[in-house]
Structures are given as C-alpha cells and as structure tokens.
C-alpha cells in the first residue's frame, strides 16, 4: 500500500494510476488523514447487448425533438 498527500498525488498522478492498475492500493491523504483510495474500475461482468432496454421507455413527449422557443435564435 502506498500513501501520498494531495500535492504529491497531483504531481505524480500518472505514476499512481499505473500503480493502481498493477494492483497496488494507493491511498491519498489530506492533513495526514486518508480520504481517497485509488483503484481500477471493474470491467463489466457481461458485454452490453443492443436492444436490452426495449420496452422500458414508457412515455416520450410529443415535442421531444422540438427546439425550445428561447433557443430558436441559436439554431
């Protein structure tokens, strides 16, 4: 486990990310108190499937694609 204060973490951020990606626990402290743990995100357990949300949208307003009146000058 590596511990760094915020100033060190800002200076060596790329190196800390690399350490975390290699499995090392990286702790970032403020005023000598741990406040963050830098860890890699877990990969999705299964791949996304197109169309998996079909039927879940219950309502779309008829004017969904309409440009609001106040924005007509910007289009």
Detailed description of the structure:
The structure is a single chain. The chain is an alpha+beta fold. Helix content is 20%, strand content 20%. It is built from two helices and three strands. Strands 1-2-3 form a three-stranded mixed β-sheet. The chain is elongated, with a radius of gyration of 23 Å. It starts with a strand and ends in a 37-residue tail after the last strand. The model has no long low-confidence stretch (mean pLDDT 90).
How many strand units? 3
Average residue pLDDT: 90
- Describe the oligomeric state of these chains in a short phrase: single chain
* H and E order: EHHEE
Gap between N and C termini, in Å? 53 Å
- Approximately how much beta-strand content do the residues carry? 15-25%
| Gyration radius over CA | 23 Å
The low-confidence parts are none
Shape: elongated
Strand order of the largest sheet: 1-2-3
Our count of helices gives: 2
Largest sheet, strands/sense/barrel: 3 strands, mixed
Helix vs. strand class: alpha+beta
**Percent helix among the residues?**
10-25%
List keywords for this structure.
75 residues, alpha+beta, 3 strands, elongated
Write the layout of secondary structure elements.
Blueprint: E1 2-5, H1 6-11, H2 13-21, E2 26-30, E3 33-38
Parallel strand pairs: 1-2
Antiparallel strand pairs: 2-3
Quick structural gist:
The protein has 75 residues and is an alpha+beta fold.
